[in-house]
Amino acid sequence: MDRQLVQFKSIVEIGSLNGASEALYVSQPTLTQNMKKLEERFGIKLFERTAKGIKPTPYGQVLYDHVRAMDKTYKQAIQQIEVLKHKKAFALQVGTGDVSWELCVKGALEEFQRAYPNASIHIEFGNNLYLYDRALAGHLDLFFGHEILGLDKKPGIEFIPMWNSGHGYFVRKNHPLVGREVDYEELDRYPWLEVSHHDSRYIEYIKSIEKNPLEQERRRHDVARVSTNSMAAGVTFLKQQDLILPFPEEYASIFAEQDIVALDVIQEPIIERVGLYVADSEKQQIVDEFIRFAQACCSLGKPPG
After folding, report:
1. Cα Rg, the chain, nearest whole Å
2. Does 236 share its domain with 212?
């Protein structure tokens, strides 16, 4: 972080130039000069003197609050870098969502570990935008998910389609809409449930909303909604309330075990491609091996459309 900002933070927290000078091993004249430069940079007065020492002005307090947040973010970045260094020791880092995990990742993992019993692997769950961000940052070698339509594509990540997925609408078995055909207008009368809700930090990756029908649907639905990143919590919400969960049709048999059923919607379902996003990796050989197992498992469970 900027040296002058570090010094400013220390002065505010200690409450005196002399104390900050001793803590930072910087002479008091140097600190005074640097604070003057900082005030000139922002065009404001940062400190005011009191009987107990010095304290920040209202402008200085605003700057301090942000500097403290910046310092925290910087320290978190250092920690995450250390975590990333540790994860680099894993032979393979794979991301997945709930649907892909059940359909093929779990089976591919079993085959991979049978073939490479000494290999280490890290599995991370999340929605496709979160996993895309993780892959861009170097935390994942590959991840499974729906194709992100309208994506602001970044270099170094390739999408490999594997099968086509229909978009269903799931509810508890005693929901008022169960047992007859319904249309989109009727769906819009009920609150929706979102599992693996898109964090606003990642929405920016979708450059062309008009090319992404699911994101258009999510933004168009203006009835109050419940969102969670936990499938277990989502199932609990769904069983207790008259919510509607838009989710891939492939999950129907798993939901059925929880007395959750798909609505009979008149309109044709939205069809998406599901596949692998593969990042450039120094471990390309072992990544290719895992992809081979995944393609074999997926072809057994859900043939590509």
Report:
1. 26
2. yes
Containing structural domain, residue 82: 3-87
Number of domains in the chain: 2
Residue 261 CA: distances (Å) to CA of 156, 180, 265, 280:
39, 12, 12, 40
User: Percent of the chain, pLDDT > 90?
Assistant: 40
pLDDT of 136: 86
CA proximity to 239, closest of 231, 251, 250: 231
